[in-house]
TrEMBL record:
<dbReference type="InterPro" id="IPR041667">
    <property type="entry name" value="Cupin_8"/>
</dbReference>
<protein>
    <submittedName>
        <fullName>Hypoxia-inducible factor 1-alpha inhibitor-like isoform X1</fullName>
    </submittedName>
</protein>
<dbReference type="InterPro" id="IPR014710">
    <property type="entry name" value="RmlC-like_jellyroll"/>
</dbReference>
<dbReference type="InterPro" id="IPR027452">
    <property type="entry name" value="FIH-1_dom_II"/>
</dbReference>
<dbReference type="InterPro" id="IPR003347">
    <property type="entry name" value="JmjC_dom"/>
</dbReference>
<dbReference type="Pfam" id="PF13621">
    <property type="entry name" value="Cupin_8"/>
</dbReference>
<feature type="domain" description="JmjC">
    <location>
        <begin position="125"/>
        <end position="297"/>
    </location>
</feature>
Amino acid sequence: MEDTKRMFWNEPNSKSYGIPTVSIPRLSYKDPLADKLIANMKPVVLTDTNLVGSAMKWDSHYLQENLGDSPCTVYLSKTHKFKYFDANQTKKCDNDFSPPTEQIVMRFQEFVKRLKSWKEGDKRLYMQEPLNEKILKSLQLVNDILTFNWGWARMQQKQNNWGPLTTNLLMISTQGNVTPAHFDNQHNLFAQIYGYKRFILFPPEDYDKLYPHPVWHPHDRQSQVDFDYPDYTKFPKFHDIKGHEALLGPGDVLYLPLYWWHHVESLLQTHFTISLNFWYKAGPNLCLSDSTLYPLEGYQKMAIMRNVEKMLVEALRDVNEVGPLLRTILEGRYN
Ligand SMILES: CC1(C)c2ccccc2-c2ccc(C[C@@H](CC(=O)O)C(=O)C(=O)O)cc21
Ligand SMILES: [Zn+2]
């Protein structure tokens, strides 16, 4: 794939991280290649799905009108990074874990006020709230959601054997925020509503180059590598990483396959960005059965590795015994 840089990428705000990338294909949803890529769990940007057409009018004023006094979850960070952590797993870290972000709940109108007055140097804000009955009080908003292109989304879900839709996460991020590289165990139709987001994706098999935190760690599923200052001594294979890049603008939808790594940043073209994702559970083909085709795919091997790690933590109880036991299996026998 010719590495076509789009005009935005020379903007000063999108750092290159020195990672070589190829462009993720941008296709019309009518293009048969689009469905082929999705069926093969390959990322693709669809430019004309109209998936969230009725949300294109969702600016801060409109959302304030319709979400005003609803409580919403906002993450705060002193840096530009918003690295997810599972607060329930911090106890296994014998308290040397310091949360990189804090989570607060505030009324949506309060969030909009802080968003508008935000300036460089202030704590960065990242509002994330699942669209559900808790915040959907206005009929106008409910009507907008009802007029999403559910026909197309349901068709994709069915023909690709995805599981049920679990979440529509509404995200509003101050400009320049970065969600560091991580993977999710759900398929994702990621719709960009306002502003621009840059995605750098890596296939599941790049597990060995991205050095995820241990499964019991609060940062489970997140890469240990700091893209701004990679530690090539600790993470030598990161040197060989190659990315798949996409720039998402209003109306674009990125199909982000299950287990694909993604690093996401809100570009500086606008003061904030608005996105909405559609997370679908993995289909039945994640469990190995006698109908499993071999050789296994990267994402299937990833699931196996995670299960082995979880089983060992469970069996050994002490997370510090997992490494030595795996080394005993490996050294002089499998390497
Ligand atoms: C990492 C972060 C900030 C977070 C912290 C604490 C709890 C949840 C989450 C959470 C959930 C979704 C995203 C959106 C998106 C990345 C992006 O658009 O920034 C993404 O990764 C996806 O759609 O899969 C980002 C986050
Ligand atoms: Zn994600």
